[in-house]
Specification:
Elements lengths: L3 H27 L2 E4 L2 H8 L5 E4 L3 E2 L4 E3 L2 E5 L3 E4 L13 E5 L4 E5 L2 E4 L6 E5 L3 E5 L3 E4 L4 E3 L2 E5 L3 E4 L13 E3 L1 H5 L3 E5 L2 E4 L20 E5 L6 E6 L1
Parallel strand pairs: 1-2, 2-5, 3-6, 4-7, 5-8, 6-9, 7-10, 8-11, 9-12, 10-13, 11-14, 12-15, 13-16, 14-17, 15-18
Antiparallel strand pairs: 18-20, 19-20
């Protein structure tokens, strides 16, 4: 007959094995995040399988960062920007970051995506992609976020432009849709949060008089003490 001591040893061994297995599983889950500190690492991570890409340093890009899969970008208080022009209409490079080929990008965390002045936009969406913005600051030229084909869900963040659209309509296109695809329903912007400099997402000229990007149940109001900055919040 098996002794009580032997049974205790077996039970203890099984418990230890379960704990080791749990640690291994948690470690595997942790490997779904990758930290990047430069342009080459960011490009490689975007083409990989990590679920979360977290910046650990400011990054100067050399070309548009294309996102063609589901991934979360954690700005982590850092900045992505360009110091040389990336605008290239032949290759549809219009922005610092472009969500393409049905990609699904979520941007979160404090930090900044800033286009070189008089060059490109901060972020664009094409090819049926989807952009979700939960935080960060986005500085573009004429447009901070441009949706050619696909959708953008603006839940937070701050938006502004350096290069104005025109003297008559300087800030009416901080968020903008491609007209033909807006008309056929394949380009959509929905705003439920965020701060907008010189731009009222509830009443702007982007898609015609009194364009409204703000979702039902939300409202855009002037920020306290400001005459040109709007904040979107629940009504």
């Amino acid at each position: 007959m098996e002794s009580t001591k032997t049974k205790r040893i077996i039970v203890s061994a099984l418990v230890a094995l379960m704990l080791i297995s749990s640690v291994f599983i948690l470690s595997a889950c942790g490997s779904k995040e990758i930290k990047v500190s430069n342009y080459a690492e960011l490009i490689e991570a975007m083409s990989g399988e990590y679920e979360v890409i977290k910046l650990t340093d400011d990054i100067i890009i050399e070309d548009t960062i294309a996102v063609a899969r589901e991934v979360v970008l954690d700005l982590n208080g850092k900045k992505i920007y360009n110091t040389t022009d990336v605008w290239d209409t032949q290759n549809n490079n219009w922005s610092v970051i472009s969500v393409r080929e049905n990609g699904n990008l979520t941007i979160k965390g404090e930090g900044t995506i800033q286009a070189k002045e008089n060059d490109c936009y901060a972020v664009d969406v094409m090819d049926g992609g989807n952009l979700v913005v939960e935080g960060g600051e986005f500085v573009g030229n004429m447009h901070a976020v441009y949706v050619y084909e696909g959708s953008a869900e603006i839940k937070g963040g701050k938006y502004s432009v350096q290069q104005i659209y025109s003297a008559e309509k300087p800030y009416e296109f901080v968020l903008n849709l491609y007209d033909a695809n807006r008309t056929n329903g394949t380009a959509i912007i929905t705003v439920t949060g965020g701060t907008f400099v010189g731009f009222n997402p509830q009443n702007n000229q982007a898609e015609g008089p009194e364009t409204n990007f703000v979702a039902e149940g939300y409202v855009a109001e002037l920020a306290e003490g400001s005459t040109d900055t709007y904040v979107v919040k629940k009504a």
